[in-house]
Each structure stands twice: as structure tokens, then as C-alpha cells.
Amino acid sequence: MSVLVHISPGPLSSERLLASHSASAAHAVGATVVFEGIVRANEQGRAIRALSYEAYEPMATNSLTQLANDILSKHALIAITVEHSRGEVATGQRSFRLAIDSAHRKEALAAMDEFIDRMKRDVPIWKTAI
Amino acid sequence: MSVLVHISPGPLSSERLLASHSASAAHAVGATVVFEGIVRANEQGRAIRALSYEAYEPMATNSLTQLANDILSKHALIAITVEHSRGEVATGQRSFRLAIDSAHRKEALAAMDEFIDRMKRDVPIWKTAI
Amino acid sequence: MTIRVLIFGALAREMSCKELVVDVCAPATVRDVNASLAAKFPPKAGFFQSARLAVNHAFATPDAPVQTTDEVALIELVGGG
Amino acid sequence: MTIRVLIFGALAREMSCKELVVDVCAPATVRDVNASLAAKFPPKAGFFQSARLAVNHAFATPDAPVQTTDEVALIELVGGG
To answer: Is A6 helix (H, G, I), strand (E, B) or coil?
Structure first.
């Protein structure tokens, strides 16, 4: 069981970070689901150039890590990797990536939905359209 | 709106295929979700070396394409790419990938779950543990 | 007339063949093919009676017509992916 | 005693500052900080009365104690990601 959380400046790279897990855990992975959030050209009907993300550190990293550990145990997952941007991310670029390794699909999809709902409610990161 | 379906021999590459869509559609993408199915070392409690996939062509490709178009319209998605292996895929390797581009997350996750349920029920591809 | 029914996966291994052949009276429907399969293989009659058949690469309803030139396939899935 | 409350996002822009300062009587709780914020900014009294506060980087219940050396932050989220 493994969790990796990374908040970094600017857009995320196209390559996902990989949470390390043991070889025995790797053999149990039957489903990998990756969600990427991309800045859209329209935010609430208004054309935008970019979003700017403000994270309250270290609470943002702490709460993402706690959330990931909680979701990992609850859904009996194998690994979770969370990446979030801070600062400016232009339209069309990635600002968020959540990757879940699991034995089965249903847990992975349920975990993904729950993770993002709880993140939006509880993780102190704010966005501003610019 | 765009659909791409590809059934190919052996394990899938680590790079996903990309469905082409217009620049205006690309600007509307706010969520990309990618599901990968990986051959696990245990199938129903039994250690295996690989799975062998048998597809009934052209019905398999036809029904994946129809399913993708149906799910695309129903959930108002932007693009769906489906890749499935035929023949032998060793444990730890990818045999299935479903990538969904959508304006929003909820539709993408619901579409992914529904797609895979219906695929398992209706698309003529059989697997054998070896 | 003779109808050839393609089979796959575990069923093909169990039957040790890739297709089953049945005789039906023309004009025939998918329902007639199911019934003939059930009659020909009594140990699996229940399975064949309700098995899903595709005609020319699309699932067909019980009332759909079947001709000897059609490609008929028995599609029973146990969970692919 | 003086409590500094960090603020972020749209609220920080609206208030044109990064922190709010309130006075509370010691010993104080999170509830007292909320009440002092509400009293100091009457137009937003309802908002401040029920706003979520974090103490030292963790959400705190209304009964949690607050000291002048704690890092207090007001965390109102409207949907991040």
C-alpha cells in the first residue's frame, strides 16, 4: 500500500508520477484508473486564459495525504498518486492528476469519485480565473 | 465527437492511442479518465502465466464501436478511445484501455463504469487463463 | 436446411470444436436454431435453449429469420475485459 | 489576546488582505474566534459565524482551544480541482 502526493508549480507534465509499491503488490494490480483535470477555455460561461491555484501549505499536502491514506484503506486499494498544480495553469493544460492502482475496477472508480468530492470540500486549494 | 476502436495482437503499449477531435472540442475537455485493465497473477485464486483473448471479428469491433458511440451520445462526451488485446497477454501487462475525454468528471466516470459493464455483457471477446 | 453455429471460448473447448451444425426446417428463426441445438445436445439443453445467438455479426431476437447462408454465432460471455 | 486568521482566494481578494485580526478573551475557543470575526465584519456576520477554521493546519471543532501562538486559517472552499 502506497501513497504519493505532490504539489508543484505550473502545469503538470504529461507523464504521471509513479507511487512505489512492492513487487508482490504490483502483481495484484488488475485495474489502473487515471483522472486528469484540464483547464477549460470557459469557466462558468466566461472565456479565460488560465487558472491560478493557491494552496495553503503545509495543510494542503497534509490533507491530501490523509485523504489518500483514508481512501486507500477504505477501498482496499494498492496505490494512490495525487499531483496538483499551484500557480498559473493555461487553458488546455493539466492542473490535477489522480492515479489509482487497484485489484478491481469497481473499487478504483468509486474511490476516484469519492476522492475528488472530498478534495473539493476539504483540501485548502483555491482557484482564480485569469 | 470522436470514437476510436482498436483490437490488436498481444499486450497494449504503454502509450495510449488518441482519438482525433477538433480544436474546438479539445478546448472543451475538462476531464480525461483512462482505465487500464492489467492481467493479474491470480485468476480466481489460481496462479496464471498469461491470459489468452479470443475475439469474434468483425462483430467484436462492430459492437465496441456501437457501444462507444452510444455511450458518447448518452453522456455527452467529447471522445472515447477503446483498445483491446487479442491473443496472449502475460501477467502484469495491459490487455484493455478505455480513455474518455469529457467536459466534466461525473459523466466521464459514469460512462466508464457503464461502458465496461456493457462490454463484458455484449462484446464477443473471451479470455482463457494459461 | 443446415445451419452452422460458431462457438467460442470455454464452450468451444468443452465441445472440442469450433462450430455446431443443426438441421432446421425452412423458413427458420433464431428460436428454431436454439431449439435444435437443445434437442441435439440433451445434457446442455437448458443452456442452448436460452443461449444468445448473433446472425451476421449482430445479436438477433428469437423471431429473426435465419437462412443457411447466414453466419450464426453463439455468444455467451462470462465477463471479458 | 490577539488572534490572526489567514484568509485565501476570493475572500482575500474581497477583503483586500491576507489575514484578519481579532481580539478574544483568553482562554478562547474556535467558536469565540468565529464570533469575533462576525462581530467585527457585520455585513458578513453570517458567513464568519459558520466559516470553517483550521488551527495549526487541521480543521478544528468549535470547542477546540485557540492561543495567540496558533496558526489559524479560514478555509472556505467553493470547489477546487
So the answer is: strand
